[in-house]
Amino acid sequence: MTPADSTSPLHLGRSDNQLDNFTDSYILFQETTRKYREAYEQLEAQFESLTVKLEETNVDLQKRVEERDRVTNYLNNILDSMSGGVLVVDLDGQITHFNQEAEELTGYEQDQVLGYPYADIIGLADGRQNTAMHTLDTGERLSNKEKSLRRADGRVIPLGFSTSLLRDEQGTVLGVVEVFNDLTEVKRLEAEVQRVNTLAALGEMAATVAHEIRNPLGGIAGYAGMLERDLSSEDPNRRLVHRIIEGVGRLNRIVSSLLTYTRPLRLNAYPVNLVELVEETTAFFEIDLERQRDDITVERSYEDDALVCRLDPEQLQQVILNLLQNATQAMPEGGTLQIRVFAEGELGAFCIGDTGIGMEADVHEKLFTPFFTTKEDGTGLGLVTSKKIVEAHSGTIRVESQVGQGTQFYVHLPQ
Question: What's the pTM value of the predicted model, to 2 decimals?
Answer without folding.
Answer: 0.51
